[in-house]
Amino acid sequence: IIAGGFYLYFNTDLLRIKTIEFNENEHVDLYDIQRYSGVEIGTPYFEIDDVMATQGLSTHPYIKSAKLTRVFPNTVKFDIVYRIHYFNIRYSDILLSLDSQLHVREVLATENEGYTVEGFAFESFSTGKVIDVSQLYILENIVSLISLLEQSPLEPNPLILFEDRNIVLTLDGIKVKFGVGENIESKFNDFVNIYEALKADGVVSGVIDVSTDGLPVYR
User: Fold this and answer.
1) Under DSSP, is residue 168 helix (H, G, I), strand (E, B) or coil?
2) Which helix (H) or strand (E) holds 5?
3) pLDDT tens digits along 104-147
4) Three-state SS across 75-107?
5) How large is the angle between the packed helices 136-151 and 184-200, nearest 10 degrees?
6) Among the residues of 68-209, which ranges form H helices?
7) Using DSSP, how many helices (H) and how many strands (E) does the chain show?
8) Measured between alpha carbons, how far is 90 from 51 in angstroms, rounded to an integer?
9) How far is CA 218 from the centre of its chain?
10) What is the pTM of this model?
11) Is the peptide bond before 156 cis (omega within 30 degrees of 0)?
12) Measured between alpha carbons, how far is 197 from 191 in angstroms, rounded to an integer?
């Protein structure tokens, strides 16, 4: 029995991976799966390191996490959670796609759908990793602002500027200043109340300033 087992393991393909299954994505193919996981067609079934394989896949710019399931005797299945584009960020002549956790997905030639942030300087970036900025919390506040906008019926200009230490949004001819975005939900609610009142009065220009924790201001 032992000799037969050794023969099957070392001299046949019965216990070597023949099939690698995964939920497909336009940015990830079988070559990527094999390269990042280390699990290739022909890999001995019992030599697969599940932890190393899933950790390796998570270093791919488009993969957030992965789960590996073995199907005896020669199949592995990967259940992959992909990073989803959340917004664009532009600085100088560089345009990047980021997910909601601020991981860089890719360098873009043209903007993807959704919001674009401009004016926020970043030191460096590496695909698959969190963008390298000096004040990450401000960018996190911008993500929260985008989430609030997506939950509202508002349709602002998709360009979000960061200028003079202010996150700036534009709706019609009205600018909204959120400061660095602290207490963003409270400031967002104040802005919406003022904007709706102005809209009801037919006002279509001016500045709504909710940048401080004091009383909001319209000019």
Assistant:
1) strand
2) helix 2-11
3) 999 999 999 999 999 998 888 999 999 999 889 999 999 999 99
4) EEEEEEEECCCCEEEEECCEEEEECCCCEEEEE
5) 40
6) 136-151, 184-200
7) 5, 12
8) 36
9) 34
10) 0.86
11) no
12) 10
